[in-house]
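Minutes, project check-in
Item: structure for the 324-residue chain
Input as provided by the requester:
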Amino acid sequence: MKEALFVKQNAEKWKNYEALITDSPDELAQRFVDITNDLAYAKTFYPKSKTTAYLNGLASVLHQAIYKNKKEEKGRFFSYWKFELPLLFHTYRKQILYSFIFFVLAVSIGVLSAKYDDRMIRLVTSDSYVDMTNENIAKGDPFGVYKQTNEFRMFFEIAVNNIFVSFVMFVSGVLFSIGPVFYLLRNGVMLGAFQYYFFSKGLGAESILVIWIHGTLEILSIVVVGGAGLVLGHGLLFPKTYTRLEAFKRSGKDATKIAIGIVPIILLAAFVEGFVTRHTGMPIWLSVSILATSLAFMVWYIIIYPHQLVRKLTIQTQANSNNL
């Protein structure tokens, strides 16, 4: 599309965005998304034009309107969770899907390896852990490991470890996305062998009801962080019309937002593991409820809600364009 036609089709809308003041967070977010989309298009096809400079300035104005004072910093936090992070999930849904596929493949490898070689579980965990678990099974308390440490200490140690592992997985994306794939495969194999071990002992259903109370949030968070690592490397591998450095800066910014955005869920998973999972004798209905709620939330927030949000913003944008 020629620049003159692009300007003609959108000029009135841009002027309205400048002239019409609104305090609605939803409206501001919609305008910001719309303008940044136009800006991205202009940067691609008219990188040095006055149109691009104008849109860059307008985007800055809208950005400041959303995040202009301390009082609105709370609104920024809310807006981040309501709009920005879900939109990033949708934008990079392919990378998150690839991360999930790599992880599931690795889990399958771990299960098959443990099935045909009973030494596998000792390789991916440790001899001491397996011996301790065997002793707990003989005592009639197979998941006693979750009761051996004080709740606060367990929560802190698990949270620190999981955040560190997630950080390493994310940062390793600079290795052209090879690092996240490696860590996804390693963690997936460990999980597959670990889970098969309990099934081989006739404790499959019980292990799901106990371990996956916290594991649902923890594992899916790892998958998302793996996706963030793939996003980080995406700019280096596929710069498109940008320079490789500029593409890396852009992908790095978005990947960092995704990785940071998932930290509260990692902390929640650690809290559940430290304070809730230890109650291995809880009623089945309660265990199933916690597990199902965790799964439903993750699927909704990472997949369903972002799709609904993009659809809503698209409809609003089309309606505004038709009214001009």
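Outcome recorded: The chain is about 80% helix and 0% strand.
No further action items on this chain.
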